[in-house]
Amino acid sequence: MASLSIRDVYKxxxxxxxxxxxxxxxxxxxxxxxxxxxxGCGKSTLLNMIAGLETVTKGDIQIGGKTVxxxxxxxxxxxxxxxxxxxxxxxxxxxxxxFGLNIRKVPKGEQDQIVSRxxxxxxxxxxxxxxxxxxxxGQRQRVAMGRALARDPAMFLFDEPLSxxxxxxxxxxxxxxxxLHQRLGTTIVYVTxxxxxxxxxxxxxxxxxxxxxxxxxxxxxxxxxxxxxxxxGFIGAPPMNFIQGKVVEQGSGVGxxxxxxxxxxxxxxxxxxxxxxxxxxxxxxxxRPERITDTRNAxxxxxxxxxxxxxxxDVIEPTGPDTLVxxxxxxxxxVSRVHPGANPQPDQNMSLMFDxxxxxxxxPETEQRIA
Length: 371
Ligand SMILES: Nc1ncnc2c1ncn2[C@@H]1O[C@H](COP(=O)(O)OP(=O)(O)OP(=O)(O)O)[C@@H](O)[C@H]1O
Ligand SMILES: [Mg+2]
Prior knowledge:
Blueprint: E1 4-12, E2 18-27, E3 32-37, H1 43-51, E4 58-63, E5 66-67, E6 78-81, H2 93-103, H3 108-121, H4 137-150, E7 155-159, H5 167-184, E8 187-192, H6 195-201, E9 204-209, E10 212-217, H7 219-224, H8 229-234, E11 241-250, E12 253-259, E13 264-269, E14 282-287, E15 292-293, E16 306-318, E17 323-329, E18 332-338, E19 349-355, E20 360-362
Parallel strand pairs: 3-8, 3-9, 6-7, 7-8
Antiparallel strand pairs: 1-2, 1-4, 4-5, 9-10, 11-12, 11-14, 12-13, 14-20, 15-19, 16-17, 16-19, 17-18
This protein binds adenosine-5'-triphosphate and magnesium ion (MG).
């Protein structure tokens, strides 16, 4: 069993700077955990603490229900893949993969079997006699993974393993890692600053900022229900629209005042309760680009969910399957996804359909979610 529990973990480096400030994360055996966040937020520090390469200042790290704070890396039954791959340049691929097995004095015959199994899995059988210098970036990455797989550990730790690859290869290797996880079922902790990698790979995502986990949950939960402005803006591309405006009474419910330069109006909001107390105050409405669309994309426009708002189109960006339309709302730029057939034109007016059924609201001061 390799569940992982991170209990109220703090890290201060010897220079006195606090880097992790009370991190709590729990995953079950076999889950794929993503640590995601901007540069310097403490992702690698946390991963290195799980690996045993950094000490724990305060708190507990448990693997399979056992506290490992004082266990050396070799006694933790984990294998790590670094961003730099850390291959031995003078050794062949075969020797790189079997290096750890050799150290642990695994019999030669068994080593050959493991190398053969792993290189087949990663499709690098034809590269076994080459040296790292004779490999492409993607091939080196596979060898580094092969070395980790050869160990058959209880947990894999990956620190930005794809960041040295070009865009196309990254996407290929991303699905391979996912496939590998599906086949092996081994617990994985994976560090990335790429929110798309986080969304596509993880069973659970911990979004970090300044040494604090801002939100921990399943990808869809984080996408649909971000707990604060930072998480909302970090996950999703193009990012969630933030429209600041005043809450007003609207019939028996509430609405948000909108001004697009072309028209002033009120957007009905599907909230009451908590939001009623904000009437007359400013809030930030969070709406994903795919929730603002054209009449053609908005099926059942009479379902009461879509509300037409006239805007002036700033810029358009065709992506193929849909076209991004940029416009001004309440003095800020928003982005919407429309059907290419809607044929939006810059500098022209257009009616955009706002679907607020998945809208979220934030307090502009605390930046926390209100509703
Ligand atoms: N050995 C160290 N001594 C002192 N400070 C350190 C040490 N290692 C990292 N730091 C600091 O701790 C903070 C977190 O670093 P860490 O490497 O964990 O960030 P990260 O989230 O992995 O960033 P990146 O995405 O750039 O890799 C940074 O401010 C960094 O400067
Ligand atoms: Mg790092």
